Amino acid sequence: MANEPRAEMEIVSALFIDEIDLRSVPGPSTRIDLSGIQFSAVAPTPVPLVWAPHLCVIVRCPAEAGGQGVLEVTFHRGEEQIARNVQPFEVEPGKFTYRLVRAELQFDDYGSIEARCRIGHGPHLTVPYTLLPPVEE
């Protein structure tokens, strides 16, 4: 029907990771292996420092959706936006895609930031990340 709302793409997952590996299995099907999933990390040196964790965002496109979108990820410390990444993408309807986002984040003190992810003007998915003090040996 002409007045039915069009299906929208959605974020299935957003995680800070060390590595991603794609592999095919019979079907045909694809497996996404994520390793080093993390919500915090120990700083390699005392602050101030620039830290650049990798955020993997997995997006689903329903079969009836258009297949084109824009992923926006903003990084926040409290209510202050400290970084922003915007990337257009295309995915075949009925399929999934992923995007890697890497922002260089300035840390003047240890603490937490939030990555707020959304497609277009859709709802945010928030992922926290905490930088911890170096471990003394």
What brief labels describe this structure?
137 residues; mainly beta; Immunoglobulin-like; five-stranded mixed beta sheet; three-stranded antiparallel beta sheet; flat
Short description:
The protein is mostly beta strands and 137 residues long. Helices cover 0% and strands 61% of the residues.
Provide a descriptive summary of the structure in words.
The chain has a single domain, classed as Immunoglobulins (Immunoglobulin-like, Sandwich), CATH 2.60.40. About 0% of the residues lie in helices and about 60% in strands. It has no helices and twelve strands. It has strands at about 10-15, 20-25, 30-35, 40, 50, 55-60, 70-75, 80-90, 95-100, 105, 110-120, 125-130. The strands form four sheets. It has a five-stranded mixed sheet with strand order 4-12-11-7-8, with no helix packed on it. A hairpin with a 2-residue loop joins strand 7 (about 70-75) and strand 8. The radius of gyration is 17 Å and the shape is flat. The chain starts with 9 loop residues before the first strand and ends in a 5-residue tail after the last strand. The mean pLDDT is about 95.
Distance between the termini: 66 Å
Number of helices: 0
> Based on DSSP secondary structure assignment, what is the total number of beta strands?
12
CATH architecture: Sandwich
Summarize the helix and strand pattern as letters. EEEEEEEEEEEE
Strand content: over 45%
Rg is 17 Å
* Percent of residues in helices: under 10%
Tell me, rounded to a whole number, the average pLDDT: 93
Query: In CATH terms, what is the fold-level topology?
Result: Immunoglobulin-like
CATH class: Mainly Beta
**Which regions contain 5 or more consecutive residues with pLDDT less than 50?**
none
**What is the domain tally?**
1
Q: Name the structural class.
A: mainly beta
So what's the overall shape?
A: flat
Q: Order of strands across the biggest sheet?
A: 4-12-11-7-8
CATH superfamily descriptor: Immunoglobulins
- What characterizes the major β-sheet? 5 strands, mixed
